[in-house]
Specification:
Layout (H helix, E strand, L loop, with lengths): L1 E10 L8 E8 L2 E6 L6 E6 L4 E4 L1 E3 L2 E2 L3 H4 L4 H4 L3 E6 L13 H10 L10 H9 L6 E7 H9 L9 H16 L4 E5 L10 H13 L3 E5 L7 H15 L2 E4 L12 H14 L4 E5 L4 E5 L6 H4 L3 H8 L2 H12 L7 H5 L4 E6 L10 H7 L5 H11 L4 E6 L3 H9 L3 E3 L3 E2 L8 H16 L5 H8 L1 H7 L15 E4 L5 E2 L5 E2 L1 E6 L2 E5 L2 E2 L7 E2 L2
Parallel strand pairs: 1-4, 1-5, 6-8, 7-18, 8-9, 9-10, 9-25, 10-11, 11-12, 12-13, 13-17
Antiparallel strand pairs: 1-2, 2-3, 5-19, 14-16, 15-16, 19-22, 20-21, 22-23, 23-24
Length: about 525
């Protein structure tokens, strides 16, 4: 007898081919049978008439490293049909761990956790799995963690040759333990201080293991073309597979560059570079408010930053650097203070939801940068922002491109996260697939499942095939919608390794997930 039988559904198998009607039988954690024959002997039989039966969605770019500690059920993931996450992105991750400085580097994006009872991928995996997991998680080794482990409190500079050798050995060891690749965030501290020698040395290790390099490249604004070329050249020289994170061109003056960037990626692929990219379905992003500061200020400790921002002379210098940046990506002048919103501030919650311009008005300040500096000078906890980064036209170009795959870039560090953390799959399918018709439903599902599994080497899931893991999402496309700011409607059933994680839009609490390794 089968454990679960899904009857009469429209199968979209994750390969993008023509949909077909069939029954799917699950035994234990695997897909046992896909057939047109009438099968009914199952412990649980679900009528899927009028619904799509698809592989569980795979989130190619997320920051869920601490999510399972606060919510083992992974409610915000499985509640939108996601059965597998890929974390450790943008060079921000929590292993290997030795020096507490890593906690400071990652807390704005990942949040905080008191008990770091691990030191490498193996011990982190064991710690993560001990209380169960609602969905699967795969991990990239993060550049920040490598630098913090090897260089400690002195990681805000170029590494020496010996330090690079130590990072390479550490990366090799973590990849051998099952991490699926390596990520860097060349926009963020401390990765921004890495030399070309360091980056190439690390990428050659990744290439030697036939694993992937995912990167938030150095500039997504004024320098986006040159920045993209930098990482494409790294991939060309090292031979690594390259995944460009959340491809975009920030700022109205840079919108024209998205066509150039897409053309560059196509050109490098023609030259033999294995490069693709991911995208989340929103025109506005979210990150740390501190990231608006110049790199030299980001190199300071938080105490030193607060001291600098307390000095009028230093404020004037920082303003000049922000408004006229030299060799770094200054988001503030590209999008403007009306497009930058304080999403969550630990020390000043009264400003949550306000733009920098609005905060400046309340404080009777003529320059919104002074409002920013006042906030950061006082802040001892989290400071998370949203910013309008691109036009709808450009976003549609990126989403519809044949080399793109789906990601959420979800953050769970603050109590008031970006909606992409809860609703990305619904936004993607409802708005861009069904309403805008940028692609067929079967192609949209391929971008969320089979494409991502192939890209990241997750061979046992991503498609509906006999013998593969029973990660399955059943949904009614006509019912897809938002219930409230954190819940969705339209998901009849979500299976994670054969366990029922969602039934009729409700979270069951079954913990079928695990840490995936390759």
């Amino acid at each position: 007898m089968y454990d679960v039988i899904l009857k009469n559904g429209l199968i979209m198998d994750g390969r993008g081919g023509k949909p077909y009607k069939a029954d799917v039988a699950v035994f234990s954690s695997s897909i046992a049978l896909i057939t047109n024959s009438n099968i009914s002997r199952g412990k649980k039989v679900v009528d899927c008439t009028g619904k799509i039966v698809a592989p569980g969605f795979i989130d190619s770019h997320t920051h869920s490293d601490f999510l399972f500690f606060s919510d083992p059920k992974a409610s915000y993931k499985v509640g939108q049909g996601i059965t597998t996450d890929i974390s450790g992105n943008c060079g921000i991750g929590v292993f290997p761990y030795k020096n507490p400085i890593l906690k400071e580097f990652v807390k704005d994006v990942l949040g905080e956790w008191k008990d770091w009872n691990w030191n490498d991928f193996s011990s982190y995996k064991a710690y993560l799995q001990k209380n169960g997991m609602g969905c699967n998680e795969a991990f990239l080794v993060s550049h920040t963690a490598l630098r913090a482990y090897v260089m400690g409190n002195d990681s805000l500079r170029e590494a020496t040759e010996r330090e690079v050798e130590d990072m390479c050995a550490l990366l090799s060891s973590e990849l051998d333990k099952g991490a699926i690749g390596f990520s860097s965030g060349l926009y963020y501290s401390p990765c921004v201080f890495a030399s070309p020698f360091e980056i190439l040395s690390l990428l050659k290790v990744v290439a030697s293991k036939n694993k992937i390099f995912s990167v938030h490249h150095r500039s997504e604004g004024r320098g986006c073309v040159k920045s993209l070329e930098e990482v494409l050249e790294y991939a060309k020289e090292s031979g690594v597979r390259l995944e460009v994170s959340h491809l975009k061109a920030i700022g109205k003056e840079n919108e024209k560059n998205i066509d150039v960037m897409l053309g560059m990626i196509e050109k490098y692929r023609e030259e033999g570079v294995d490069v693709k990219f991911d995208v989340y379905p929103y025109t506005f992003g979210s990150t740390s408010l501190f990231s608006l500061l110049p790199p030299r200020v980001l190199a300071y400790s938080r105490l030193e930053q607060r001291m600098a921002l307390s000095l009028d002379s230093e404020r004037r210098t920082i303003k000049e650097e922000i408004m006229d940046p030299d060799g770094w990506d200054s988001v503030y002048p590209m999008v403007g203070p009306d497009a930058i919103k304080a999403l969550y501030l630990s020390s000043h919650p009264e400003y949550n939801g306000m733009t920098l311009s609005e905060i400046a008005g309340i404080k009777d300040l003529s320059d919104p940068l002074d409002a920013l500096f006042d906030i950061l000078e006082d802040e001892t906890g989290l400071a998370v922002m949203t910013d309008v980064t691109e036009s709808e036209e450009n976003l549609e170009k990126v989403i519809s491109h044949s080399l793109s795959c789906f990601g959420t870039d979800s953050l769970y560090s603050s109590p008031l996260p970006h909606p992409r953390s809860f609703h990305s799959t619904v936004e993607f399918l409802k708005k861009y697939v069904m309403e805008r018709k940028l692609m067929t439903m079967e192609e949209g599902i391929r971008r969320m499942t089979g494409e991502t599994a192939d890209r990241f080497g997750l061979r046992d899931r991503g498609t509906l095939e006999e013998g593969k893991a029973a990660d399955i999402t059943v949904f009614d496309p006509e019912l897809l919608s938002l219930v409230d700011e954190r819940r969705n409607r339209g998901f009849s059933l979500v299976l994670v390794n054969g366990k029922v994680a969602v039934e009729n839009d409700g979270i069951t609490g079954e913990l079928g997930g695990k840490v995936l390794t390759i």
